[in-house]
Amino acid sequence: MADFYQNGIVTTLHNLTDRPLEELEQELIAFSKVRPMSLVLPSLFSELERPALATIVEELAKVPYLSEIIIGLDCATEEQFAYAKEYFSGLPQHVRILWNDGPRLRALDAQLAEHNLAPKEPGKGRNVWYCFGYALASGKSKAVGLHDCDIITYDRSMLARLMYPVANPLFNYEFCKGFYARHADGKLNGRVARLLVTPLLKALKKIEGYDDYLEYLDSFRYSLAGEFSMQSDVLNDLRIPSDWGLEIGVLSEIYRNHSTNRICQVDIADVYDHKHQDLSLDNLDAGLAKMATDISKAVIRKLATQGHTFSPGKLRTLKATYYRMALDFIENYHADALINGLTLDRHSEEDAVELFSKAVMQAGETFLENPSATPFIPSWNRVQSAAPDFLERLYEAVEADNC
């Protein structure tokens, strides 16, 4: 059972009573008459071949309040796109699939590239960005949610709790982040959040002193959660990072554009598990090592835009401070695991910390080498300024693909 503690500058909505799903969904049906809701699902075609997505689709078929489900499909041939249309055809909601590798969307992407506005890297960030563009183009919703397609422990109560804060017209929240406990199969998971993000933020606060942005990020119970919801208007100004810094980057953009009293986080699950990445001890450009580097770069870049300065000496201090704090956190997590009957491999935890400390240093060095790099995809407001009819053409292309 969750506590009720508010210990940051972002409102935390707890799961205090395990309220019946039926009650939540009845309220969401009522809310949907005022604030229609859409769900974005970014997916590789390979997810359609795994059991997790099959369970998600089965659960979503029972959701009564969604106006639209938008699926971003990556790495799919024409035959696989046809299979995907059949795969999702059982969903009763209005469903549209963005075939990102299809000729129509590729042609639109090439037109954006002429304006230097197209996403430069493939991946989840690009996928999500185009899905958000379609959500704006379709105009079917006033609130949009997003979650991944590899959630092994999925049930539709996650979505209900995720959408509720931005769907309820009595609330003033513009953005909501989901959080949950990361354990499964008797093990404590979530290494990047536990052993990189939390100690990195604590180390930066120790070195830099009080900073609103660091305090804001540190207020989130699980800042790397891929589940969030927002008012549709938020999508216009949102710049999407194109690398593994997606979740931290989105939080940074929300911080830049909106007051913290319009931002919340909500407990959406007692247990959560999904597909895991390899630690990648020997390659900083793959697996969790790449993720750790991109996340660290996202934080450092954001601090730099707020007037913080970085030098080789400060980076060495940051690495040393982070490393000591991360090792101390292992002790905390080890005790937490034991009292809950979970296992924690301290050797592999220390391996992760050593790897992440290298990633922090590499992220800082990369920033110093190219401080003007901008990994963000432009906002949809900027796209519409450069190409006023682009969203209309995107809508027409997706409709043509789905006919």
Automatic annotation (TrEMBL):
GO molecular function list: transferase activity
InterPro entries cross-referenced by the UniProt entry: Nucleotide-diphossugar_trans (IPR029044)
Keywords: Transferase
Protein name per UniProt: Glycosyltransferase
The organism of origin for this protein: Agarivorans albus MKT 106
